[in-house]
Amino acid sequence: MQCYIYASRRKPDTYLWLAERDGFGVLPESLRSMLGELRFALELRLDAQRRLPREDTAQVLAHLHEQGWHLQLPPEGALTGASHPAYGATLVDAPPRD
Q1: How far apart are the C-alpha atoms of 16 and 39, rounded to whole Å?
Q2: Per DSSP, what are the bridge partners of residue 69?
């Protein structure tokens, strides 16, 4: 199956896979709003034998066949503001401002 992959400009490391090039009409409006502007990233031929580095090929194919799209989110544990070790830490005696 030929598929088309778009990168979200608003959400880093978030990719939208489509069964049809520029076939954004199949997306729920809430998803379109969340992703913001999309940039075409890649076109590839996907079949059950192809191994993907971060996604389950069977699941991607199932989503593309059933709904026409698949959402690839950043890997768990990716460095984000909320998961950064310093998040929530208190500042240590910052010098007073003049």
Answers
A1: 10
A2: 18
